[in-house]
Amino acid sequence: MSIHAKPIDHLIEALSRLPGIGKKTASRLAFHILRSSPLEAQELAKAISDVKEKIRLCSICFNLTDEVPCRICQDERRSQEALCVVEGPNDLIAIENTGVFNGRYHVLHGAISPLEGIGPDNLRIKELMERLQREKICEVILATNPTVEGGATALYLTDLIKSLNIKVTRIAYGIPMGSEIEYSDGMTLSKALEGRREI
């Protein structure tokens, strides 16, 4: 039998379903919401409702957006020649936050993973290939994650894209800035060596 009122239990249960949120954190969040003003609670509820009602996929790049096409696809100052392919919207945000890339994106919404039943038809690969035939893209940058699934996806895409005579590159992987070589694992070191470039 719970010591909390039913609405509090329901909120704790709902919050604990979020990724990375256990029962203790969910309980702290629930009591924080309970202590907050009615206006703050309503703003939180409205923000959640707005995300569910207003966010959809961009008709061009399949990023999450509240306007179609998304702001990146609308931006005429961005390079039309380079297309960065990412697994998910969070990857796009991470690359965009660097301020280094000024091209366009294509979001696959996952990676090929036969063990999880995810094949090429479950991703936005067909739309990518149609886009490559329609637009004047000179280089496709594959920015899939350095995982078995990300690697398999990159290899699969490389074979498809090279048949269109478009340059395909993959982002380099290696040792993060500020870390020490002696603490890096073998795979990270091997990728760092493979991705070396002339200075």
If you had to describe this structure to a student in words, what would you say it looks like?
The chain has 8 helices and 6 strands, in the order αααββαβαβαβαβα. The protein has helices at 6-16, 23-35, 38-54, 71-74, 89-98, 125-134, 148-162, 186-194, and strands at 56-57, 64-65, 82-86, 104-107, 139-143, 167-170. The chain is globular and about 65 Å long.
Secondary structure layout plus pairing:
Layout: H1 6-16, H2 23-35, H3 38-54, E1 56-57, E2 64-65, H4 71-74, E3 82-86, H5 89-98, E4 104-107, H6 125-134, E5 139-143, H7 148-162, E6 167-170, H8 186-194
Parallel strand pairs: 3-4, 3-5, 5-6
Antiparallel strand pairs: 1-2
Helix pairs in contact: 1-2
* Residues in helix, %: 40-55%
CATH class category label of the largest domain = Alpha Beta
Strand pairing plus helix content: what structural class?
Answer: alpha/beta
- Residue stretches low in confidence (pLDDT < 50, at least 5 long) are none
Q: What's the gyration radius in Å?
A: 21 Å
Biggest sheet layout: 4 strands, parallel
The tally of beta strands, per DSSP, is 6
* CATH architecture call of the largest domain: 3-Layer(aba) Sandwich
Integer tally of domains: 2
Distance between the termini: 67 Å
| N-to-C order of helices and strands | HHHEEHEHEHEHEH
